[in-house]
Amino acid sequence: SGGAPGAATQLGFTPVARTTADTVTVPPGYTAQVLYAGGDPLGADVPAFRNDGSDEQWGRRAGDHHDGIEWFGLDAQNQPSGSFTSRGLLAMNHEATTDEKLSSFFIHANGGTATLPRPAAEIDKELMIHGISVVEVRRDGRRWATQPASPYNRRITTLSEAIFTGPAAGSAHLATKYSPNGTKGRGTVNNCGTGKTPWGTLVSGEENWYGYFFRDAQDDARRNDPKITAAFKRYGRNAGAASRHGWESGGSDDRFQRWNTGATGASAREDYRNEFHTFGYVVELDPYNPNTLLTKRTALGRFAHENVSFAKPVAGQPVVAYMGCDARGEYIYKFVSAEKWDPADANPRNRLAAGDKYLDAGALYVARFNADGSGEWLELSPKNPAISGFKGFDFKTQADVCVFTRLAADAAGATKMDRPEWTGVNPKNGEVYITLTNNSARTEATVDAANPRTYSDMKGSKEQKGNVHGHIVRLAEATPAEATFRWDIYLFASEADADKANINLSNLSDQNDLSSPDGLVFSPATGICWIETDDGAYTDKTNCMLLAALPGQVGDGGARTVKSGNKDVTTHVGKPQTPATLRRFLVGPKGAEITGITETPDGRAIFVNIQHAGENTKMADVGDPAKYESRWPSSAGYGAGQRPRSATVVITKNDGGVIGT
Ligand code: FEO
Ligand code: CA
Ligand code: CA
Ligand code: CA
């Protein structure tokens, strides 16, 4: 049945069973249509994608590995509630690429070069498949189509000019040959989650950017600065670290050498020793205005950014954003703007000027979780004596804090979490949800109330350890700008048949069990909490999935003690789940992760990103489609060639109704 947009009170679809089928499976009564796949043209004059490794013009095609995605309406702003939206922009991240031994093998004719040095021509393609795309889409009946000739279509790549704003802009940390005064950067890479600002722009998190940099074995000695060396280590790059794709090996041109942290000019203004510090930020883009530059908002800190979610803005109150740093034992952050929200900025003439107003000055905090169910936001600033007095780094200015944020958070005494991924704000009550995807390094010695599980679970014949399946924590604050919160664990991911006393703590069943929650987005139209999964320890039995949830509130399940190894840990849990409160909506193709999700304002179309189908294919088999792990989406009748591609699917209800209800 249809139903008007509003707060859903029940989930109205048949749960999808776990499956390893190489297709996108949705409930009866729903249709999934492939809309926009890697390589699709973003210009009327760009040739159709051949999908055989010979395609050129990657700067004018959809990038690879679709991740976070947001809808920007072109006709919806003034439509009455319930009318069927028909035209908009999809802005999305192209996080990474399916690779083995340095090469993005599906985009090269023969699988590419897996040894160093790599050919410049291969690297030049790879530099362009990362970044962000904006594409116009329109509806005709229930079918949707991209508009290759739209003037809004746009690509941001690793080479696009970017400007720095906020405390670190113009600081010595960001001085490079490209921008000796430290005010500009070049491109964005490994963009994972997204967000939509209250003023109508895209924000996107640079996540595993450090893996793209090469550090030679002499770089510690060359720098002769133990604190900077320690900071490189804290951000995942020891001296001697190889890069993911060997981009530094392409030749002497700056577009290759910038990925080499050891380039040796006379000063930082003449080389790329600081290029590493120009990534790791939240970037902002105005999808409505192709003539504006990508903006790196340093006030929101530098770490492995997943996404950004905003508290509902309130007139006269600060703008508040929540963020996770996705690595084992990393932290949850919050930014509170100095400026107070003016509702006239909801549709401003200059959107990036609104970004300057709300995202360049404010306070950055990191979360500490207490065993009693309370928590604190610790301010990251040299005003905090724990930070100014920290022995591991000389924090003198907010620029230092914004570039070396992980070290400041260490100094502040934040709680090490089980890999914070997406954050989302429940529109019903303002509570903040954060997925903690899993943590193989969590042990009996390090469990705490907010990360209480370490256990053993099997993946086929392989034993998995730590917090194998992950969990979702949530926070309740009196107001979003508050320095304290209450928390509980809304959901413990688990396989249905696992021990209900210590592992399957949320009472999951065949209709709703999952591993490794990652994407989490609340629907503004229905209030449904959409949860997406990434790989995890369950892919021997099911491909990754999308689930729909109707959550309660912090504290609704009370305190509970669980056994982690021989240790008893008391934690705070949400209510047990039933298929009425959580059920599986979609299962993706083989090897794919379900990444971003967004919807039209009427809730009648959702756009879901399917990332890296077939990623376990061997590079040696690139010429033999019979050996591909997946041939999606060509197997679904979409596009040329059989090489698997990341893609956006649009899902509609056959009766035209609101999705999920
Ligand atoms: Fe790109 Fe943390 O997932
Ligand atoms: Ca993710
Ligand atoms: Ca993930
Ligand atoms: Ca991913």
TrEMBL record:
<dbReference type="Pfam" id="PF05787">
    <property type="entry name" value="PhoX"/>
</dbReference>
<protein>
    <recommendedName>
        <fullName>Phosphatase</fullName>
    </recommendedName>
</protein>
<dbReference type="InterPro" id="IPR006311">
    <property type="entry name" value="TAT_signal"/>
</dbReference>
<dbReference type="InterPro" id="IPR008557">
    <property type="entry name" value="PhoX"/>
</dbReference>
